[in-house]
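Weekly modeling sync, notes
Attendees: AB, CL, MP (scribe)

Item 1: holo prediction request
CL wants a bound-state model with guanosine-5'-triphosphate before deciding which constructs to order. AB pointed out that an apo prediction alone won't tell us much about the pocket. Agreed to run with the ligand included and paste results into these notes for async review.

Input as submitted:
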Amino acid sequence: MKRDILGVVLCGGESSRMGRDKASLKMRPGVTQLERQLSLLEPFCNRLAVSLGPASRAEREVPEGIERIWDLPEWEGPMSGMLAALKSGGGWPVLAIACDMPYLEASDLLQLIHRRDPSRLATAFVASDGLPDPMCALYEGAALEALEEEAKSGRRSLRRFLKGPKVERVEPADSRFLASVNDLQELDRARRALRDPRD
Ligand SMILES: Nc1nc2c(ncn2[C@@H]2O[C@H](COP(=O)(O)OP(=O)(O)OP(=O)(O)O)[C@@H](O)[C@H]2O)c(=O)[nH]1
């Protein structure tokens, strides 16, 4: 069921380890990583957007009808993308996922949505290193002010923010779905593991 949530695929990085734009790489024949992530968010979100940064080359990959949200020039990194997304969201919660997390499934997003507590600032999965993962998390509209304070005080880490109070942390039984792909070998492994028998 769709909700008043802004679903955002983070595509603002440099993709330096991959050596080419990660969003545009095909997960399956005819389906880019970006398209796959948008289709995961689509059933849950009344608005969909792609988060773009100054170093990313993903703008041309954004399908028609999908919003583009540019990082705020005064900040850097994914923190800048989240601040821009929350501003664009106008108070709506933002469900943010990275473009390079191919193992993520709709059921994982549903788990986040079900665990959501709107009186908190965010709901985030805890990864295998025991730290919350900012690349698959639901940020409440009220997180904007708190994140701005973090950014202004020089603390520009989303992970650090998610370790703080008023954040719901969800420990999955198996956190492998949070793995990201950063080089062609990892991408190939993911393609093989997720191959659709119809392809
Ligand atoms: N909006 C936005 N997204 C970012 C930014 N940096 C990274 N991301 C996204 O965050 C996710 C994880 O990024 P990383 O793998 O840490 O960084 P990357 O730049 O994509 O890749 P590397 O250059 O190899 O580190 C990806 O979906 C990126 O597109 C940024 O500055 N702005």
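Recorded for review: The CA atoms of residues 7 and 48 lie 5 Å apart.
Action items: CL to compare against the apo run; MP to circulate these notes.
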